[in-house]
Fold these 2 entries.
Entry 1:
Amino acid sequence: MTRKDLTLHLGLVALLFALHFILPAYHHGIFARVMVLAVYAIGYNIAFGYTGLLSLGHAMFFAAGMYGMGLVSYHFGVPALPAWVIGVACAAALAFVVGLLALRTQDVSFMIVTLMFAQAAYLIILYFSEVTRGDDGFVIPGALRAIGPFDLSDEGTRYIVAWILFSVALLFSLWLVRHPFGRVLVALRENEERARLLGYDTGRRKLASLVISGTISGAAGAAYAGLFGYVGGSFAGVQYSIFALLWVLLGGAGTVLGPFVGALFMFYLIDLATEVTEAYMLIAGVVLVLLTLFAPQGIVGEIRRRLWKDLP
Amino acid sequence: MDFGPYLMLAMLEGAVLAAVLALMASGLSLVFGVMRVVNVAHGEFYMLGAVMAWVVTQFLAGLGGGAAVNFIAAAVLAPLIVGAIAAAADVTILKRLDYDPERVIVATIGLLYVIQQATLMGYGPDAKPVVAPFNQRLALPWFEFGEDGFQMYYPWGLSTTSYKLFVIVAAVVLLFALRLFMTRSRAGLIMRATQLDRDMATAFGIPVEKVYALVFGAGAALAALAGVLIVPIQQAHYLMGGDALLLSFIVVIIGGLGSLAGTVVAAVIIGMSDGIISVFFTPTLAKIIATLAVALVLVFRPQGLFGVKTR
């Protein structure tokens, strides 16, 4: 890890901390939300951007974290921090099981298998609506949404907790991709056959990558439940899987900063679009088509291509 | 109702679903077979077919046409319009991606939202009906060997409509026509040649890009036709493509990607079992079973239940 990399990423972390004191209330709220969603995208990026696993089912890991956390606090009154840990563990376990099965397939089949597993997970949430409250979802009681003396429903606390989670995820992903393990993942993406020939156990590395990816996505889901207090079926739908793909593609797949940049841009774009029309997802569709046609590298990817060759 | 007549009713509903599904999935299968790309926007072409059917019948009804004439016009025009839109999307988007499988998936996800949301803006969020050209209620008899010997009676509630029977017959005829077209006609021969070896086809002077645009258009037109057929039974709504897409994926995968015969067999299995499970349990449970089944088929038998290993 070079000093330049570290300066850039710590700079972003410091900037986001400074923004806590500067931003007006409305944008302050949006940034808190975007940071949590960016963690979800960072998780997705490890599988898709660095390992080349095009998954269309990451919403199930996000939802596993969210429901793991939400259900234990809603039904059993578990406080926020242990409930969050349970949520993360649920996502990790699900990613492990899905990985064992889905990684037997490749490319297009892998995409369809993950899509089908995620759809089944979504339908299971709807089917057991007595426990999960189905599509309507449920609200986590305010008394449980606290870590020690800090009340998570307070705007300031929420921002700082989201910032801590985001910073940890960002620096972890920077560390991972500069670590030899991360380099092997990139080798898998570029040429799996050659990586296997060099003696790497490609199956186990891909499984490890998917479990790390799913765990981080689940951590975001569990944090979302704790910070915003709402757990609902729509977060498990196929649209949320596609959002992760969209954010990462827009920001730049296989870049550390890409997921945050993509999530931020897209969030504001959709926020603007909802003011104009009910059909705000039109923007998402147009952006996806334009990205595949003209900028498959995404925003940060283009910067890397033109300006900064060894940006992580 | 007794169990027997109830099962018969479930199977009839399942057969209608199977017929529509077979048409739609063979469009998806055709595109995958010839072009080797997965079209995620396929469900939206089905939706667009249903919406176009509504538009055409509304327009003609304004001119004072009868229900049957309007419906026939919709059945001809809607697939043509949708096919033209799809062919245009192929030339402007897919061709420029050089039919790279993963990038085509991402682009067609984008296309899905563009079509769906544009429909929401132009057509509105409400479901709208199209009148069936004919819709007689047909009560069905049931046979029983009871204490009094052989008996035939009409159980209450066991009935179908002439239109539903027409959908089944129409789908069978269309699928036979498609099979004849692929195996006997010159255009079908060219498509199969392109499917087998794209480079060799180019070397023999086949305009591969034109074939691709036509195949993509034809696949979308098949989905649109399925949409036109279903719309008198189930109203046209801008979100109806999602479930249809999922079911066609399931059918195409179980049948073996790219095999038309397998697709039809799988459509019958999935349609019938979905109809029967939905009647006796809940539709959600039916879908959970189907999606998990298809994921496991792909994991453990990637060539599909009826496919043969090619590579």
Entry 2:
Amino acid sequence: MNSNNKSTETYYESIIKQGHSRRDFMKFAAFIAAYMGLESTMVAQVANALETTKRLPVIWEHFQECTCCSESFIRSDHPIVADIILDKISLDYTLTLMAASGHQAEAAKHKTMEENKGEYILCVEGSVPLGDDGNYCCIAGRSAKDILLEAAEGAKAIIAWGSCASSGCVQSAKPNPTNATPIHKIIKNKPIIRVPGCPPIGEVMAGIIVHVVTFGRLPELDRQGRPKAFYAKRVHDSCYRRPYFDAGLFAETFDDQNAKDGYCLYKVGCKGPLTYNSCGTIKWNNGVSYPIQSGHGCIGCSEDGFWDFGPFYERATNIPGVEGEGIADDVGKVAAGVLAGGIAVHAVAAAISKRKEVKRRITRGKENEKNIES
Amino acid sequence: MAERIVVDPITRIEGHLRIEAEIKDGKIVDAFSSSTMVRGIEEIVKGRDPRDVWAFVQRTCGVCTTVHALASVRAVEDAIGIQIPPNAEMVRNIMEGVLYMHDHVVHFYHLHALDWVDVVSALNADPAETSKIAQSISNWPKSSPGYFSDVKNRIAKFVESGQLGIFANGYWGHSQMKLPAEINLLAVAHYLEALEWQKEIVKVHTIFGGKNPHPNYLVGGMACAINTENPGGINAERLAMVGKLIKEGKEFVDQVYIPDLLAIASFYKDWGAIGKGFGNYMSYGDFPTNGYADMSNFKFLQGVILNRDLSKVHDVDHRGDQIEEFINNSWYDNYPEGQDKGRHPWEGETNIKYSGPKPPYEHLNVEEKYSFIKTPRWKGLPMEVGPLSRLLVGYGRGNKEIQEAVNAALAHLDVPVDALFSTLGRTAARGIETQLVANWTLEFYDTLLNNIKNGDERMASTENWEPETWPAECKGVGFMEAPRGALAHWIKIKDRKTDNYQLIVPSTWNASPRDPKGQRSAYESTLIDTPVADPELPLEIIRTIHSFDPCIACAVHLYDEHGNHISQVQNISSCDN
């Protein structure tokens, strides 16, 4: 099974080989275009990309992680993961699914790295422990840091799956015993797509892969390196319970009548106002629900350092110890100046052009708060 | 003269695991199991609000997601003295039952099957013959010759493309691959179907817990309030979806997983005599039907079986001094009382101190500490935990339902009871219990509906939600049967904060290094006497290790008789000829 001269097969060729017609192929292209939210005039471009793009080699490393990201990835509904790994990418190394173990596994990876230098995508699940010279995570007798540096060198780009790879996640929570470190703090010379979440939503993970293979380019990122398509909105802004927040109607404790009536969970600790993710829009497991819809507040799992934001069930009036850059800092600054945290965060995410609306809401929200407290 | 082999990384597991084994005359004579990754979660939760801890420890594992959250909320509830409402108990049971179904099916097809199924051989199959076999063992509708022909074509094109992805360098063509091409095709088709199926069944977690992986739990019950008359709560539509998902999940288990398991197992009966191990089995018991405190009404019963003697089942006590953890061979600071002393988990410590070789290394020094896993013991004895242990304890306790299920499988395969104590037995037990649990999950669902129908809509007990209501000091244990075996968390709470927290997970029991008496744990013990046809391609090691469904990342390396590392193994993925 020699792959040397065959690694240039395009999606179009691959689809035709699988017995599909040109018409099927165009339908698929139209579906992908629709999925990506593109105009119908873009279908031809998508089709063209699929016809001419090489199948993308992917190496997926596992470091300090719990494999929830891989599990979430295989939960993707559109496209389903079998279609991704058989038709769209060549997933040449992943400890979770690959048939080979030991040296056979490592050999497969090195073959891909050599034959596709500068072409493969490196996916990383898990943080890298820098404590004690990297002794806290070894694979095949090598430290995670060494493995990462080697795999990153020939990568076209890196996808940092989940909060572990993009911010360190649970093992980096205080006191961070192993000095668990996210990927962008180690690799500085490659494009890195950060896909935070514990785990990220399956369709978001698949969507990023689809974006890369379809358009042949990386998705647009925000200033924290997250794909705008999936992380531009706060959970709070897309939450179906938001009207209850605006109206000042809150669950006071779990399972009270207000909770049963689906009121806002802000007072029982929901971190939706601080959290940028697609939970309110794409939702989970093909749109079935998301944490708030199922009665539990958002724990903020896609935000840097969320484990140390403070107790999950306390309302987010102040946001201590924000160490990261970007939005989280802004939230902290604003929160410091405003008494009611829930109101403060209202102000943060709104664009400058919406200031008036925000002011109006703050006033109204404060009134609501007063009414509740009294 | 013994030859030393190492497998690292062991793939198709959760975590980082490494196995080193000595081979003499084609059989393993000694083995060492090592986990090479640590995160220190037990240290991280110290000082935190006990109500938050479930979320931290849930991240111990994203494959058997939920189990650590459940063990944690049980530990905290046990410490504080909270009794959860019956609805919450049923919802937790349903979620756990769904996890069993999901986890065992994914393990069978995606983590274990490629040890037995030769994907490349499927290309030689006659789809019409596969169809005939499929229809003779099951009523599953996707079984036409055309269907299997499509699957075969798809795999053929995939292989021809030269980009083998996850199938690259697999053990295709290995002398120990025994299935006819037609069965291989059947299994490959169901590998792909199961991959699609698994994303459906977990939606039960999404309904009750908001997401999967890592659904939300709550100390005191569950957060998914019931309101049959409001879109804001669990109502008739949500419950109907749960019912449909469980039923569809059960159909797949009954009509695809079990027939495949039996069909494949019938070609590997020799594995009913391989991977036996020391023969001690332990179950903590789980699936309460009358509250966590009433262990006699658990679906899975607690107990210990020693030396394969099913006529006597010993009781497990999680709170007394039966269970101890040792760190004599683990990379942690020794206890002041000496490195050969164990501690009950309530007194346990997790002070990481790596003393292994500096990476990059060729092999571990197994004469000294060699793993990040600690070594738990029951009354000083090593225990095997997992589906087989649960069934054996139930069998030994005289549970008719379990006895009938086990006897039926033995009769179907025409193998003696002894065949249970093996690699094959472990894999078969997983399937047998999946059917039982699927039935129970429907029972739990009916109970939940009846409760609600009778007017009980409580989902959480919040009387003790506020820390002010807690005693100044308390401690608790949250035990359960995770899909991979006996799991427990021990918590000590002081001044409303987590004072100490220790987990002993199933893979701690099974994968640990040896104890101060030199006794091997389950992985090391069951590898003894395993035949290895080709030390360069240690498929047999992987089979036995995978039969436990490891939840750690591991690595196995190969050494020759002088301890030299065997270099790059040959690439056997060629199927062009």
